[in-house]
Amino acid sequence: MRAIFGWLGRHLLLFALIVGALMLHAAWVANRGSLSDTTVRQRATEAGAAITQVRERAKQAATEMQVTASRSLESGTETLVAQKGEATRQLHVLEAAAPSAFEQARWATTGDVAAMKGEALRRLEIERLKREIDFYSSTIDLANDPNGAWAGLRNAEAQLGRLSAAANQQCAMASQAQQRLQAFRTEGNALFRQFRRLFGEEGKLERDAAAAQEACLAAIRERDAAVRNLASAREAVRRGQVVIDTQIALATGELEAIAVQVRAGGGTKFTGYLWTAFWVLLGIIVSPYLIRAFLYAIVAPAAERRATIRIDLPDMQVSPVARTEASRISLPVVLSAGEELLIRDGYLQTSSQTAEKATRWLLDFRHPLSSLASGLFFLTRIRGEGEATTVSAVRDPFAELAEMELPPGAACVLHPRALVAVVQPEGAPLRITSHWRLTSLNAWLTLQLRFLAFHGPSRLIVRGTRGVRLEPAAKGRIFGQDQLVGFSADLAYSVARTETFWPYLLGRDSLFKDKVEAGGGLLVIEEAPLSSAKGRGGSKGLEGLLDAGLKVFGL
Q1: Is 66's pLDDT higher than 80?
Q2: What tens digit of pLDDT does each residue of 459-498 get?
Q3: Pairing relationship of beta strands 419-425 and 356-362 according to DSSP bridges
Q4: What pTM does this model have?
Q5: DSSP states of 533-550
Q6: How far apart, in Å, are the Cα atoms of 376 and each of 5, 357, 372?
Q7: DSSP-assigned letter for residue 483
Q8: Which end of the chain is more exposed for a tag (fewer CB within 10 A), N or C?
Q9: pLDDT tens digit sequence for 220-240
Q10: Degrees (nearest 5) of the Cα angle 476, 481, 487?
């Protein structure tokens, strides 16, 4: 329960700090811009009134463009070209005055309604000018195109006039032919008309009247077709005139939304701060879990499939041997003939009075920096057959010791920081080789790029907090990264994804653990690493940075 209240308290405090930061930022921006609240409200009121002005200007512009277009089609396109050029110039000026994305984000954060209204008006005016330019262009094209809609209208009107005159003339000729035929049938006596019929005069008059009537009807049909063509031409001209009222009404919708924000007042502004702070806090809380889930499900399985680390030692023939089954607080060391003991300061508890003692400056003069960094300098050297020495951590109450033997042909990869004492033949110093693995992904994931291999024959005494465990690799072992002290050089070393998801997601376990593959060698594990005892995340600050640096170099 205490942990829950602590978590809530920390995040409520963080929420309050985010809200305060947003408000301070808004105040700073307002002061920087020298805009008082009165000025902001005044500009907001003016911007709200501009909605009606823009609508009226749009309607007036639409009417003027239509009238101008009609006149220009009659008198030429000079006026339209001039107005199009002026509208284009105004459009370029407005587009050049576009604010940056940062400025728009600052307006949204600080609630600068006047600035947002001004930007909305600018975009509205740009849309109006674009539609006005399109209208001018289409109207100019209509007037200048000899084969366009306006030319078609002129041709249709002229053709209708010609066909109407022709139809009137043909119908008049048909009427005259009918009159001549009627006069033939009614004038003179019957004997005279019969005599004229014998010569075919009546048939000729009838044929002339029928032909004239057919020509009249054909002329009427052509005139009616010209009337329909004229109507189509007028419709084409009407479609060429663009009306922008609908587009302007849609563009003013954004201003209406901002006007609602103005009427909401300062309460909406503070509520905006709260919501912004809430989403920021939610992102801070959720992001680590999303990242951890991605690493666990995608990255870790891919890393597990990478090649393991193997230390190639052609001269290695056998594996190290554990001299003790369990670690102890103190270990007695008895020297055989031709052996010497090198022990670091702080671990020599008791020694023989008759033993030969001297100082060894460095454990390995071929690796001076590694010896200094791991504390293996100013060592006490003890010689003498049968001499007994007790090795124990006289200054660390939690340290326990274990002994491991490296026969001839055996080698062990070991962190020198855990090495307490070495028993080696006189005149044959312990051989240490360095192995880099800069191109191995497993080396980077374990934060160990260099490995130090200790070669036999020798006996190594290692220490660990609350004990050291020497166990056979058998079917392979998985362990925490801070627990590793060393392993036989014939084992394959890599990383494994932590076994349980939820403890890792909640930050209680690390994503990767170390592992060695199945083999016949030994694994040297520290029971309770000191870095883990200092906290779940290990050592902090400069100490943690130093520990990480030593691990990178295999120390």
Answers
A1: no
A2: 999 999 888 888 888 778 888 888 888 888 888 888 888 8
A3: unpaired
A4: 0.55
A5: HT-TT-S-HHHHHHHHHH
A6: 48, 17, 6
A7: G
A8: N
A9: 777 777 777 767 766 665 665
A10: 50
Report the distance separating Cα 449 and Cα 159, nearest Å. 96
List C-alpha distances in Å: 155 to 165, 226, 233, 432, 434. 16, 10, 9, 106, 99
Residue among 22, 552, 55, 457 nearest 275 (CA): 22
What mean pLDDT is predicted for residues 158-180?
A: 74
Cis peptide bond upstream of 457, omega within 30: yes
**CA 111, CA 304: separation in Å to the nearest integer?**
50
Helix, strand, coil % over all residues of the chain, rounded to 5: 55, 20, 25
341 forms beta bridges with 382, 423
Encoding tokens for residue 301? 């399985």
CA–CA separation, 257 and 255 (whole Å): 5
pLDDT band, very low/low/confident/very high, at 347 (cuts 50, 70, 90) = very high
166, two tokens:
């022709």
Are residues 315 and 408 in contact, defined by beta-carbon separation less than 8 angstroms? no
- Give the full edge-to-edge strand order of the sheet including 484-488: 431-436, 450-455, 411-414, 484-488, 519-526, 468-474
- The residue type of 464 is G
How many CB atoms are closer than 10 A to CB 401? 22
Retrieve residue 267's tokens: 């309460």
| Pair 490, 520: CB distance under 8 Å | yes
Query: Are 420 and 343 a contacting pair, CB within 8 Å?
Result: yes
Residue pointed to by tokens 């671990």: 347
How far apart are the C-alpha atoms of 87 and 253, rounded to whole Å?
Answer: 23
3-state secondary structure of 243: coil
For residue 321, give the 3-state DSSP assignment.
Answer: strand
Residues 20-34 have pLDDT tens digits of 887 777 667 655 544
Domain boundaries, the chain: 2-145+247-281, 149-239, 321-552
SS3 424: strand
Please spell the DSSP secondary structure of 367-407, one letter per residue: SHHHHHHTT-EEEEEEE-TT-EEEEE-SS-TTEEEEEEEE-
